[in-house]
Specification:
0% helix
Amino acid sequence: MKEFAFKINGKDYKASVEESAEGLKVSVNNKTYSVELPQKSSAQVASVVRPSGAAVSTGVLKRPATAAGVAENVSSPLPGTITEIRVKEGDKVKRGQVVIVMEAMKMANDIVAEHDATVAKVSVTLGQNVNQGDILVCLQSDGQPAPKCVPQPAPVPAGSSTVLAPLPGTIKQIKVKAGDKVQRGDVVLTMEAMKMENNICAEQAGTVKAVMVQCEQQVNQGDILVDIE
């Protein structure tokens, strides 16, 4: 059993994680949850929480599986900061091998290769902030042409911004309305994801053009939450 302590929004938490035949038993502040580990699927993002010395907890973030023998660009599944780069150009990697570690939502997350391949290019550097969809690593399967490492998406033009859901979850509180002025870093809403309440912040100063969600609404990763101009 692994035990650790951490703070979220200034509140102290004590947690433990214990493996069992049925899955995981996770206790947070003496409240125990039974966690069933998801089956591998090519249709959805799966997160597996395990302890990490570098951060509160670690998740393995996976994208839909890519068929063997096909070139692939490994993209960021959500906004975050690159904390470890575990491969370099020319390295051979196996399916499931960790290529990048990034911090997001106050967790260290392992980004893995979806198939056996050779690293064609590493597109990020340590400490770099990345957005959802940014290319992290370009992989090339044996006998296949190198993938096209397209440029990173252009930054949102000044004067417009959309706040996206970084993970699937449930909207718990909406703190802005159309017409409100917000500053970069202001909390615009809170959502519950992975049994934690997370603050979602504005990426830049502006005026709220529209709120696209309602309280208790379930959202998917990448859904537009708030439109700011």
